[in-house]
Amino acid sequence: MPRSLAALLALFFVLPLSLHAQPHPHSHTARAIQFPDVPGGHTLQMDLHTHTVFSDGSVWPDIRVQEALRDGLDAVAMTDHLEYQPHQDDIPHPDRNRAYEVAREEAAAHDLIVINGSEITRSMPPGHTNAVFLEDANPLLQDDPRAVFREANRQGAFVFWNHPMWTPQRPSGRPALTEMHRALIEQDLLHGIEVVNKHKYSAGALRIALEHDLTIVGTSDVHGLIDWDYEVHAGGHRPVTLVFAEERSKAGLKAALEDGRTAVWHRNTLIGRASHVLPLLKASLSVVDAQYRPNTSVVDVRIANRSDARFLLDNQTEVPFHTRSDVVPLAPQDTTRLLVKPGARQEALTLRFEVLNAVTAPATHPTITFEVVLPEAQEETDR
Ligand SMILES: [Zn+2]
Ligand SMILES: [Zn+2]
After folding, report:
1. Last residue of a domain, one of 214, 238, 267
2. Are residues 127 and 242 in the same domain?
3. What's the CA-to-centroid distance between 361 and ligand 2, angstroms?
4. Are 177 and 295 within one domain?
């Protein structure tokens, strides 16, 4: 590679450290989920599927807000079931916007966006669907599911298919589109699909999203407590949808969701279209230093990871490492040292890895490349 190009690439990979050195503005707590912004967009974290006592959840809506604040989320949607309300003898709630209103009051003094939503809870087809960014959930109480989708869309809602891998409605656990789903997608009444719901990931749902241009969504679908479901004390995290938005607002989130600008963060894995996962990987990882060890051609490379992902990289080049096999873990929010053995001193080094804990299509992992400029060989003879 020409020297000037190498220098340029080195700049690209080295400089972002200083730009991202300040903590994420929403990192109020140690457990807060943190990913860096991408070029041209904020990386916002949202949970688009939660329940409260206003349907079959076990908590008052204020707890959903408190959990979201602890997790450093930018937004949370209240999506109680419209048609399933097992607590209604104890908690009457004729107004289906009530959980949202209580949550919004709780969040008023905080920097958290609360979104009004409903889970349209039907047998298959169409199964369960969330409508979020609703103006008024009450008019969604209609018998014909098609009429409910039309009303949600009339209100400008973002509508996505919930847990298409849910075995009570799909015993194989493998999602399949029905005629009704195809019609809803064709009429632009259904816009997204849960590729992750609670603890489950579905490659089939990811395939459907890619083939039918649906937005990739991952949610907690929490009914109890986030801490108990996801063992946050032991380093776990709820699944979140990472939304790449031009502005941090309801409108910014909605526009990005409608445009499919998302990835999912689930069990330490990033799932999304390559066009969205790759910029996030580039924003998260960079080589911040590379030096020859004295009197050797072994290079001490330092790779910074500015995300919460514990990345697992698989070496795709012939160049071996000094202390590790071909699989290299990168600790979250930390810098990892990698000793690389190119065999002889040279001007530049290409490191290329498959990112094993990122998924851009079923069983497909993206590749990331670092072009590393090395110090002049003559420096050694000066010592
Ligand atoms: Zn439920
Ligand atoms: Zn459901």
Report:
1. 267
2. yes
3. 24
4. no
Domain containing residue 298: 3-12+285-376
The CATH number that applies at residue 321 is 2.60.40
Check whether residue 219 and residue 335 sit in a common domain: no
Looking at all shown ligands, the one closest to residue 57's CA atom is 1
Å from CA of 84 to ligand 2 middle? 10
Where would I find the beta strands (DSSP E) of the chain?
Answer: 42-47, 75-78, 113-121, 128-132, 158-161, 192-197, 200-201, 215-219, 240-245, 262-266, 269-272, 285-292, 299-305, 311-315, 327-330, 334-340, 348-355, 358-359, 367-373
Residue 258 placed within a domain: yes
Q: What is the pTM of this model?
A: 0.90
Residue 156 CA, ligand 1 centroid: distance in Å = 24
Give the tens place of pLDDT for each residue, 341-358. 999 999 999 999 999 999
For the CA atoms of 318, 322, 328, 331, what is the dihedral angle to 10 degrees?
A: -150
Neighbours of ion ligand 2 (CB under 5 A): 128, 162
* 245 and 353 belong to one structural domain: no
- 117 lies in the same domain as 207: yes
Q: Closest ligand to 120 CA?
A: 2
Q: Per-residue pLDDT tens for 49-63?
A: 999 999 999 999 999
